[in-house]
Amino acid sequence: MQHPPSRRAADSPNPPSPGYPGYDEEVASRLTLLDFYHAWYGYRFWFIAGFVIVAVGAFVWTKFFMPKFYRSEVRFFVGEKFTPESMIGLADIKLFTGSRNDQYQAVVHSNLAEQYLLSSDLITTVTWQLKHTPEEGQPPLDICQLLGIEEQDALVREAKLVKLMRENLLQVRLSGTTGIVIYQVEMPTPMAAARYANASVRQLQRQMTQQAFSYWDEARRLYDQELERVMAERRELALRLDRLPPYDRYGPIEQERKALKEQLDVQAEQIALIRSQVELLRLATEPTAKAAAQPVKVIDWGDPPIKKSRPKTILTTILAAGLYSFVFMLGLVVAGFFTAQARRA
């Protein structure tokens, strides 16, 4: 006698062929897309209401309650090879026996500018300058207070400021292969973003100019010392010459007088040469010369931005509504699964 297949056989990986008793009921109990549609249609009011509430809530929260940040950027480039002596004509001045290029490297790269801009020294220096020595016509700007950093300990306050600026508010990137550096700063107010970005690049100019001119500043000091030494020797020779007896026409004293005069003439030429070199170095290390020959060349200074950079109101609203829709549909899938299980039971 042939018996119909059991329920276990129907649930096995290889179900029996159609025609056994209960097959039609089992097919009818399977979950289909039409079941999901009917489930969604039944909850359509709650879905639409929740969608509108989430979208409007995300829009209002982002628009009126979330902290806003504005981005200002400065574009500049750094000279690949910087030679301050090319302006004044100092190429002939040499202090050391080795090559001047070995003693003073004039190559400044953009990655060095990035290290400077993200360094804790520059961040704290610019913050102090904006608070205590603002530009003419500008009010003091307290970056720590603006960002909500209220720690009393100065070291802790600076550490939190540097960490926050590096991770969230500062960005340095290169524009392709052009060598142009784009420095971006985000602040809670447009004017603060522009002032901090411009002050940082000015401080970068001062640091890199000081590094580029450090050789010539030291050279000027060495030449001044050499000039003082030669002039002191000349004064001693002149004093020895004055102390010689006036009458000894053919004796050894006259020969010594002649040798001293020759040394004085040589030293006079040496002093004239050193003075000319000192004058060239003085011209090369003047603030105006440094400002004209600085390696950092600014293309565009930072302007106060008109629109905020973040949060993105429309994007945040779309993401919130999309996340709500995904969670709602996932709930329908779970509910449909349990419904199918209940039908089979």
Describe this structure in words.
This protein has 345 residues and is an alpha+beta fold. The protein folds into two domains: 76 residues, no CATH class; 234 residues, Bacterial polysaccharide co-polymerase-like. The chain is 63% helix and 8% strand. The protein has 14 helices and four strands. A four-stranded antiparallel beta sheet has the order 2-3-1-4. A hairpin with a 4-residue loop joins β2 and β3. α3 packs across α14, α4 packs antiparallel against α14 and α8 packs across α11. The longest helix is centred in the middle third of the chain and has 54 residues. The chain is rod-shaped and about 135 Å long. About 10% of the residues have low confidence.
SSE topology sketch:
Blueprint: H1 7-10, H2 23-29, H3 33-42, H4 44-65, E1 70-78, H5 85-88, H6 100-103, H7 110-117, H8 120-132, H9 143-146, H10 154-169, E2 170-175, E3 180-187, H11 190-243, H12 252-284, H13 287-292, E4 296-300, H14 313-344
Antiparallel strand pairs: 1-3, 1-4, 2-3
Helix pairs in contact: 3-14, 4-14, 8-11, 11-12
Task: Trace the largest sheet across and list its strands.
Answer: 2-3-1-4
**Quaternary organisation of the protein chains:** single chain
Secondary structure tally, helices: 14
Termini, distance in Å?
A: 28 Å
Instruction: Write the element-wise H/E pattern from the N-terminal end onward.
Output: HHHHEHHHHHHEEHHHEH
- Overall 3D geometry? rod-shaped
Task: Please state the structural category.
Answer: alpha+beta
CATH class of the largest domain: Alpha Beta
What is the number of beta strands?
4
In percent, how much strand structure appears in the residues? Answer: 5-15%
Count of the separate structural domains:
2
The CATH level-2 architecture of the largest domain is identified as: 2-Layer Sandwich
**What name does the CATH topology of the largest domain carry?**
Bacterial polysaccharide co-polymerase-like
Main beta sheet strand tally, sense and closure: 4 strands, antiparallel
Low-confidence stretches: 5-10, 81-108
- The mean pLDDT is 76
From the alpha carbons, calculate the radius of gyration and give it in angstroms. Answer: 40 Å
The level of helicity is 55-70%
